[in-house]
Amino acid sequence: MSTIPAQPNAAAISPEAPVVGARPGHHGAPTIAARIDRLPPSKTVRNMVILLSLGGLFEFYDLFLTTYIAPGLFKSGVFTATTKGLFGFEGIASFVAALFLGLWVGTLFVSWLSDRYGRRVVYTWALLWYCIATLIMAFQHTAMSIDIWRFIASIGIGLEMVNIDTYVSELAPQAKRGTYFALNQFITFSAVPVVAFLGWLLVPHQIAGLDGWRWVAIFGALGAIVIWFIRLRLPESPRWLEDKGRHHAADAILSRIEQRVERETGRPLPEPKAFVGDVDPVKPRWGEMWEGVYRKRTVMLILFNILQTVGYYGFASWAPTYLIAKGFDIPKSLLYTFIIAFAYPISSLIGASFGDRFERKWLIAVPALGVALFGLLFANANGATAIIVFGIAVAFFNNIMSYAYHAYQSELYPTRIRARAVGFVYSFSRISAVFSGFVIADLLKTSGDVGVFTFIAAAMVGVALVIVIMGPRVTKRRLEDIAR
User: Fold this and answer.
1) Among 72, 91, 100, which Cα is nearest to 196's?
2) Domain for residue 318, yes or no?
3) I need a labelling partner for 79 at 20 to 30 A (CA). Which of 174, 217, 246, 453 fits?
4) Is 145 domain-assigned?
5) Is 0.85 surpassed by the pTM of this model?
């Protein structure tokens, strides 16, 4: 795989390099953004997205870990499927809550580190944080200690997910952002059938004195360490460097990207257009997301994230548990959800074919309605074939919505506050998941899976309405134009 060296000249492109050089975008000189946006589709940019996505692979492995080790946690007697009260910590809902509470802390309170210290630095260390905490969690023996280390590991994941969305949006040319986000999701969601297979293979058994669910967690942590070394080859975001006034560093990295693209295509790149005002010396402020055009976007994304989590993780994190509640045994529930898991990467691969053909807001709203419809059909299905078919449909629409909204929310804010703003609005999905997990556990006990999916369907209809009514158009527009 051909990649851009992270530091071709350490003195020239280090993020700590001194602020020198003329300001692009103020006197007619092409900006870094203009130079990126005129890049044609290329192996060079695609390889950078692939490297970013390899790190995300283990984030999604961990996000779906709950789904496939839950039966093992029941079997070992550490957790129960339902709770005695709404917020009982003996149930699997507390394990789900620990995950999303950590994600909430990572997205809300720590994501600003990416705007302050750079995409590459945060990208690297957040993964190492996850590896260490997950390894420790795998050897805990009480519900409380498992929840604590699950929470700690999830802080790193929450920070990383915001950072990846920010990173991809800043490296991708405007005409292909949707396609590159779909590629990113295809790779990251390839982790779902892997963790599903390991869950099916290992969870029912004990190996070398350790319960199978512990091995599933250990494999994820050890694999992520390998990816940590691979990701050291990534360059810093040129857009971020330029925004920090480090013009020589940004130019050095982007010049090497341009040279590689020219060698691949065999022809000179078109001249970039000069856009005045792309580089704005405004100091980043948290309150900026509540000013001007950003206020409506922030409100919209808060409402969206509160609702979308109910549908997305209400299915993704609980699918085997629903099947156990229907009366299927652990091996069958894990086998059926293993088959359903293949819909996650495949849907992203299909999405790459139309990621930039349709307006992004419609690629969120329409699939949300699909989740509502097929979720209700899944809840009312009893035969294995119907369960698998409707489960695949829910996963397919969930994932089309997922890659579209990950691109969408990262496009709506300027570079100087992108990570912290996305982290702030995204944090509402995490805190929503904490409480909706307990609600789902209670509904599963009192109303069964039909009651759960009625709750999910109502939330997804709300998602569609919020996006259609309040969402701006973004497809094939420059990030800098959308952010104005």
Assistant:
1) 72
2) yes
3) 453
4) yes
5) no
